[in-house]
Design a protein that fits this description.
The chain is mainly alpha-helical and 272 residues long. It has helices spanning 3-7, 11-29, 40-43, 46-59, 120-127, 148-153, 170-184, 186-198, 201-210, 212-235, 248-270; strands at 61-62, 68-69, 78-79, 86-90, 96-100, 111-112, 136-138, 161-163.
């Protein structure tokens, strides 16, 4: 992915992509030179080093101790979103086993999960493909300051979700309500946190209904703003060479996938 490609991505996806480029660059520039048994022709062949890095990094599996390992045959499994056919496991000696998750019919592909199925941005940044079967995506709501109470309400990328059905996760509504009450109704904010901690659904639901006009307004403002941002980012691609920036078609597909999800949410709650 070229530096210009990164400029066409939303902020979170751009951050992930830049991090991946940085990891590869550090290996190419420094780490590889410390390996004593490689000759200088290999160490300073940047294209070769980058290719090897990508092969190892995208085919490796993470073991329980956090290390990355290449497993012959195991590295041939492709990715499945919500319902992978294979669940990897290790024994006490570190041997890799692949167990089926259900009774698999003949001629069915065997796949594992490469990561959280609701985080297509991670899969795109690390593996270079877009999983358009994902049921949801992070809502891209990133407050300037995230405190402990917001995390207690469920603020994290795995839970702050927009679904392809148009639904919005409860955590999104909770955080929007918290943001609104933090600047207007401190007493009701305390009531929200107390009801959340005590599992008092009725009180919490009462607060959501009371302030639905305000929280839905915040939601719409966020959706509209992010759609406009995506359109601006995708517009940068016009006139650019795909040969020079080969990832641009996939980036456009990623941006459109996110845009379609946001549009579906907007239609679900606001009718357009």
């Amino acid at each position: 992915m070229t530096p210009f490609c990164c400029l066409c991505l939303p902020s979170l996806m751009r951050k992930l992509a830049v991090k991946e480029r940085g990891n590869m660059s550090r290996l190419s520039v420094s780490s590889i030179k410390l390996i004593p048994f490689l000759n200088d022709d290999t160490k300073y062949d940047t294209d070769l080093v980058n290719w090897v890095y990508q092969i190892v990094y995208t085919r490796a599996v993470e073991s329980p101790d956090g290390d990355l390992k290449i497993v012959p045959m195991g590295d041939m499994f492709n990715h499945a979103g919500e319902y992978p056919e294979i669940e990897p496991s290790y024994d006490e000696e570190g041997n890799y086993y692949a167990y089926t998750t259900y009774d698999i019919p003949p001629n069915t592909p065997l796949r594992i999960s490469y990561g959280d199925p609701t985080n297509p941005s991670f899969l795109f940044a690390r593996y270079g493909f877009l999983d358009d079967t994902t049921p949801a995506t992070f809502c891209k709501l990133i407050p300037p300051h995230i405190n402990k109470e917001m995390e207690e309400l469920g603020y994290c990328q795995k839970r702050m979700l927009f679904y392809k059905t148009g639904d919005v996760s409860d955590e999104v509504w909770d955080v929007l309500l918290y943001q609104h009450l933090s600047s207007t109704k401190i007493g009701d904010k305390r009531m929200l946190m107390t009801s959340h901690r005590e599992g008092d659904y009725e009180t919490k639901q009462m607060l959501h209904e009371k302030y639905y006009g305000e929280t839905s307004g915040l939601l719409l403002e966020h959706i509209e703003g992010f759609i406009a941002q995506l359109d601006k980012l995708s517009g940068k691609v016009e006139g650019r060479s795909v040969e020079e920036h080969p990832r641009l078609p996939l980036i456009l597909k990623h941006n459109q996938f996110v845009r379609d999800t946001f549009m579906t949410v907007r239609n679900r709650y606001f009718g357009y």
